[in-house]
Amino acid sequence: MTESPFPFVPYHPVYLTEEETLQRVREFYQLMDKRRTVRDFAEKPVAKEVIEQLLLTASTAPSGAHKQPWTFCVVADPSLKKQIRAAAEKEEYDSYHGRMTPEWLEDLAPLGTDWQKPFLETAPYLIVVFKKAYDFRPDGTKRNNYYVSESVGIACGFLIAAIQQAGLVTLTHTPSPMNFLTKLLKRPENERPFLLLPVGYPADAVRVPDLKRKSLEEVSVWYDQKPC
Ligand code: IYR
After folding, report:
1. 24: which of 166, 178, 193, 207 lies 20 to 30 Å off by Cα?
2. What pairs with residue 134 in β-bridges?
3. Mean of the pLDDT values across residues 72-98?
4. Dihedral angle, C-alpha 180, 185, 186, 192, nearest 10 °
5. 3-state DSSP assignment of residue 106
6. Cα 166 vs. chain centroid, distance in angstroms?
7. pLDDT interval class at 1 (50, 70, 90)
8. Can you tell me which atom of ligand 1 is nearest the CA of 113?
């Protein structure tokens, strides 16, 4: 039998009292409930190490067979951001002028989005997340990845939570189709664009739609133990 690449080691849990647990879950919910999708960014720069730490956090996400099937492309170069904006706006223009259904446009109208994406240039960083459909062995043959979309989706969730925790803002931008990102960022054939997250500080006095979130009753069903 081949030796496991991950020998088992003791797990050291985070020990908390019941009160500490309650306090933490409440605080974390309050923090996450303040998260809003923000589309207007300040010019204020963000240190490179901040982005590095955010990506390390995202990469702690669980993944199918621990393959970590993601690549985070970090774009800070203004000329590359400009090219991404131009290519995204070309696709988005077509989407908003015919590709999206009338119902879809009606659903989006209250959010105030349109084909123009200035945030692709104003945000100090664009994190373009790629999912790796498969990997390559050192000899160049293909090695499969598993639950790729689920794994990368979870990693993006961790990333968005970490961005919030850092006092920064983002939005989940999904220009469609996204294959221009593969070309512009020169990604290999095993990678597919998954999500684009501009990251930075919010613009001064930025406004967001007054959305309400579903109640716990609306989003959960409980199967409690019945008393005997
Ligand atoms: N990808 C487009 C359209 C869009 C779609 C949904 I669903 C949104 O919640 C927001 C936008 C865009 O980025 O504008």
Report:
1. 207
2. 144
3. 97
4. -60
5. helix
6. 15
7. low
8. 14
Q: How many helices (H) and strands (E) does the chain have?
A: 8, 6
Contact between residue 71 and residue 59 where contact means Cβ atoms under 8 Å apart:
no
Amino acid 44: pLDDT:
97
For 74, 124, 139, 148, 152, the CA distances from 190, given in Å and listed in that order, are: 18, 28, 15, 12, 14
* 96 CA distance to ligand 1 middle (Å): 9
pTM attached to this predicted model? 0.96
Give the count of beta carbons closer than 10 Å to the beta carbon of residue 158. Answer: 17
Query: Does the pLDDT at position 3 exceed 90?
Result: no
| Nearest atom within ligand 1 for CA of residue 176 | 1
**Which residues form ligand 1's pocket by a CB distance below 6 Å?**
92, 108, 113, 173-176
Q: What is the mean pLDDT of residues 169-182?
A: 95
Residues in the chain: 228
Residue 192 CA: distances (Å) to CA of 93, 177, 212:
22, 11, 33
Closest Cα to atom 9 of ligand 1: 108
Q: What ipTM was assigned to the predicted interfaces of this complex?
A: 0.88
